[in-house]
């Protein structure tokens, strides 16, 4: 699907390129290389709808001032029959910018596009046939998910949806860290709490997980086994056996809770990928052998090292420790080779906390060393979030078990508000989440502002829909008010907004677009009555708000937010 705005942009670019050729043929100037025509939208409306600097690319070769070149090109553009009915004015600004003012009639095609595509309006096929893996949240299953996981969930899920709207075949993935040091620490914490629950006076590990959930898992295990009398024998078993039983039970409970919490958040994963499965299936060994065969490793001090410095990094990294156990880095290499080599995703995107930024370069280095194109991997880093209540930050500590969990947050503000607020800023921006604002029914609350626009349109349609046959053609040329034109123009930009949001890995663009669309509708509503004596104008305006409702629904759908019909 090529949308009206893209069609116009393509015609303007072609017309500018043709104007250069025609000016050369007419002897206005001489060049050997055809320039690459670029368009931009001027910041000020007085400079038209589009502008190109093509004339400013040619002075050196044409031996002519850019303004003179622009005059020659403008003469050709004004005579171009292909621009008739599309461009109403072509003029020159500044040192040689060529500005195009469009005929307003192009806006009416937007309504037809929305009507014909409906819930798919905004979709493009630039990535059709390509596979896309998006791994996000991937919280350690050693305790409840926290606010950082909540932001990652909102960012990742919307990024996945945006990618799907650009044609990708998307797989949402959760990487379950069920192996390694954090699981060992988890086992030590559970073991200590179990012994304490059984009446033993034992110290708790200094670096253990101190949250109340650890004791809750232990109590649940005891209850599941039939009470203390039934588990007392576990104290006589060796430490590894006892810890393994506690870990297996607690991991199962925590993972089930993660599934529940993410579903409540509107996030549904296609794959829950177990880190332990790579040990069981021999993928760690295969990845290590591959790197060794490529000559990318060496042995030192009883450990196996990756030659990270050979790939532009500051220091080499350990892959296999002296005790023979793989490092987290080794596991991460195997995991990403599984995505790129075994499952052969065309694009793999990870959403990580900013504290993992230093890990990106060395992981990409390992991917290159293994013979893969590391540009297929992209990491979106997200900054920390502060929760604000009554104007003050809420202090939290995950290690001390004082962090607000995802489930608790959703109970406080609701899923819609959480998903929108966590995407108010680009992922790489620090963000203050105002809990009070998130539940306010005011225009300052972005989710309320967008949803209220949708509900207001539904209310108008309920009141007036019976007076007009909405399926009958309307005379859209009656839509001439500036606020009507502005609303149509914003709607026309949805496909490009989605493409740019995917290209920049920035879901906040969708929230900003939704706010802009809601603002354009509210401005229209304030200036243009829909119920008017002129039946034809009322019909045209009803068509306009019907299209607006559909576009709002599509945007809210991408954000994973409900579109209420009344508020």
Automatic annotation (TrEMBL):
Intracellular or extracellular location(s): Cytoplasm
Record keywords, A-Z: Aminoacyl-tRNA synthetase, ATP-binding, Cytoplasm, Ligase, Nucleotide-binding, Protein biosynthesis
Reactions catalysed: tRNA(Arg) + L-arginine + ATP = L-arginyl-tRNA(Arg) + AMP + diphosphate
DALR anticodon binding domain: residues covered: 450-567
GO cellular component: a single term: cytoplasm
PROSITE patterns referenced in this protein's UniProt entry, alphabetically: AA_TRNA_LIGASE_I
Residue intervals of the Arginyl tRNA synthetase N-terminal domain: 10-102
GO-annotated biological processes: arginyl-tRNA aminoacylation
Top EC category: ligase
Keyword Nucleotide-binding: yes
GO MF: arginine-tRNA ligase activity; ATP binding
Enzyme Commission code: 6.1.1.19
Span of the annotated motif 'HIGH' region: 139-149
Entry's family note: Belongs to the class-I aminoacyl-tRNA synthetase family.
PANTHER family associated with the record: ARGININE--TRNA LIGASE, CYTOPLASMIC (PTHR11956:SF5), ARGINYL-TRNA SYNTHETASE (PTHR11956)
Entries under NCBIfam families matching the protein: argS (TIGR00456)
Assembly notes: Monomer.
Protein name: Arginine--tRNA ligase
Organism: Pseudoramibacter porci
């Amino acid at each position: 699907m090529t949308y009206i705005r893209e069609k116009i942009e393509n015609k303007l670019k072609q017309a500018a390129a043709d104007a250069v050729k025609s000016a050369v043929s007419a002897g206005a100037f001489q060049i050997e290389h055809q320039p690459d025509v670029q368009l931009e939208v001027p910041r000020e409306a007085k400079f038209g709808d589009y502008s190109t600097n093509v004339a400013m690319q040619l002075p050196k070769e044409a031996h002519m001032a850019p303004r003179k070149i622009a005059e020659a090109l403008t003469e050709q553009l004004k005579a171009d029959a292909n621009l008739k009915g599309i461009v109403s004015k072509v003029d020159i600004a500044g040192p040689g910018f060529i500005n195009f003012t469009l005929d307003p009639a192009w806006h009416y095609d937007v309504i037809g596009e929305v009507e014909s595509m409906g819930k798919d309006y905004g979709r493009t096929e630039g990535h059709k046939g390509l596979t896309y893996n998006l791994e996000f949240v991937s919280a350690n299953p050693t305790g409840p998910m926290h606010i950082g996981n909540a932001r990652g969930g909102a960012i990742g899920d919307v990024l996945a949806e945006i990618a799907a709207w650009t044609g990708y075949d998307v797989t949402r993935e959760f990487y379950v860290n069920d192996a390694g040091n954090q699981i060992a620490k988890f086992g030590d914490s559970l073991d200590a709490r179990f012994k304490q629950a059984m009446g033993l006076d034992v110290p708790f590990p200094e670096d253990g997980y101190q949250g109340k959930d650890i004791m809750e898992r232990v109590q649940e295990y005891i209850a599941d086994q039939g009470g203390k009398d039934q588990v007392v024998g576990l104290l006589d078993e060796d430490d590894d056996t006892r810890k393994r039983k506690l870990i297996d039970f607690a991991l199962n409970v925590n993972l089930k809770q993660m599934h529940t919490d993410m579903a409540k958040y509107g996030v549904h994963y296609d794959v829950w990928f177990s880190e332990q499965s790579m040990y069981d299936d021999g993928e760690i060994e295969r990845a290590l052998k591959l790197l060794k065969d490529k000559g990318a490793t060496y042995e030192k001090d009883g450990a196996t090292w990756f030659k990270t410095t050979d790939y532009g990094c500051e220091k080499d990294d350990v892959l296999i420790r002296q005790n023979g156990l793989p490092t987290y880095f080794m596991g991460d290499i195997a995991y990403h080779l599984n995505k790129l080599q075994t499952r052969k995703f065309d694009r793999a995107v990870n959403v990580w906390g900013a504290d993992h930024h230093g890990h990106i370069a060395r992981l990409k280095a390992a991917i290159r060393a293994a013979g893969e194109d590391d540009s297929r991997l992209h990491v979106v880093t997200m900054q920390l979030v502060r929760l604000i209540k009554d104007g003050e930050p809420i202090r939290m500590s995950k290690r001390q078990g004082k962090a607000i969990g995802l489930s608790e947050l959703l109970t406080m503000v609701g899923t819609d508000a959480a998903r929108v607020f966590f995407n108010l800023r680009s992922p790489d921006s620090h963000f203050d989440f105002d809990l009070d604002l998130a539940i306010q029914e005011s225009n300052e609350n972005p989710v309320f502002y967008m949803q209220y626009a949708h509900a207001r349109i539904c209310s108008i349609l309920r009141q007036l829909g019976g007076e007009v046959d909405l399926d009958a053609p309307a005379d859209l040329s009656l839509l001439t008010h500036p606020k009507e034109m502005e609303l149509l123009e914003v709607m026309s930009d949805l496909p490009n907004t989605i493409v740019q949001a995917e290209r920049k890995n920035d879901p906040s663009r969708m929230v900003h677009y939704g706010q802009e669309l809601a603002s354009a509708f509210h401005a229209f509503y304030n200036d243009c009555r829909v119920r008017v004596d002129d039946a034809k104008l009322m019909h045209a305006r009803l068509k306009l708000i019907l299209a607006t409702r559909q576009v709002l629904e599509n945007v809210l759908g991408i954000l994973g937010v409900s579109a209420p019909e009344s508020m």
